[in-house]
Amino acid sequence: MTTTIEAPTWAGPQLRGMTPCGPLIPEIGICLLGGRTQDPVRALEEVVEAEELGLSAVWIAERFDSKELAVLCSAMAARTKHIRLGFGSIAVGSRNPVYTAATGTTFQGLFGDRLMMGLARGLGAVLNNQGMSVPTMAGYEDYIDILHALFAGQTVDYDGPLGRFPHARLVDIPSAPRPTMWNSSWVPGPKALELTARKFDGLFLGTELTVEATRKIVDRARHECRRIGRDPDSLHVANWCMISPDLPPEEEMLLINARMVTHLSFPGIGDRLVEENGWDRREMDEALGRKEISRDGIIADQAYTREQLVAAGAALPREWIETGCIIGSAEHCAGRIREYLDAGVHHVVLHGASPAQVAPVLAHWAA
Predict the structure, then answer these.
(1) In the chain, at which end, N or C, are there fewer CB atoms within 10 A of the end residue's CB?
(2) What pLDDT is attached to residue 35?
(3) How far are the Cα atoms of 251, 265, 276, 288 from residue 281, in angstroms, in the given order?
């Protein structure tokens, strides 16, 4: 199965200027409802605040409890006029590809060209305990090919790693363009970058990457595009960056340090972050210890209390916080965002702080 990428134009310079709610900032988005929550309603107010501030996109990281992507993003789209909604991201082992395609076409048909569909192989530590699976790279590529075919109105006859789909199709497709598809890969290796260049509209990087590590990954992605004859500028890159602008130390410890502990607990990701950033692996082991960041195959933020995560986070090297996250004064944070954009990222997704908390940063950005 072959794929031709004919991506809808994403939020670029042509969307600068005034919107019904004010000036649009295409370079900056925000993640809402970070971490665990029992109050998803909060997102419906915060997305309105984000749009009024001029942010171009909001993203939601899915959890299988009160943060189901399709429901949340649809509700937020209904409350707003133009801001884009990002799935960050669908673990493909959790959904039949026809269902994923139907989610995309229904969303676009209802709200126009506003959906950014993040897709990922997923984490076994999360999916396997829920009776879901993580596909192989070959299966993941097949999944993306099936989505491209379905969005193009084709009928799919497939028998492979994902199972048997003898006559998969979307019967009625709205006239709205398909959503952009982003490969969500926290710290992408060669295979992920090669697949991204061939199949995806965008690359979606995870948090805690330093500016220099981000630059190297972007350079590799662009090189891979050139290698296969694709225009490197056609591949958009988004990077989630945890941010704490002028927040009290105890709140910063919860938003930044404790959350970094949860990310380091993801199998394989912590090791890749340390390697890519040039950090000392021994510091992670000494500061956390494997018993501190995982238990019985369950990721840390599901296995430990908030107090335990804060205690573990306090032991992280301060250099990691300062170079892998965006912290400090609002003016300094605005400058740090510029550093990531100068590294080749098109879109920085602020993670941790609320729209109200990042408003002073955006004021400096506008200045």
Answers:
(1) C
(2) 74
(3) 27, 14, 11, 11
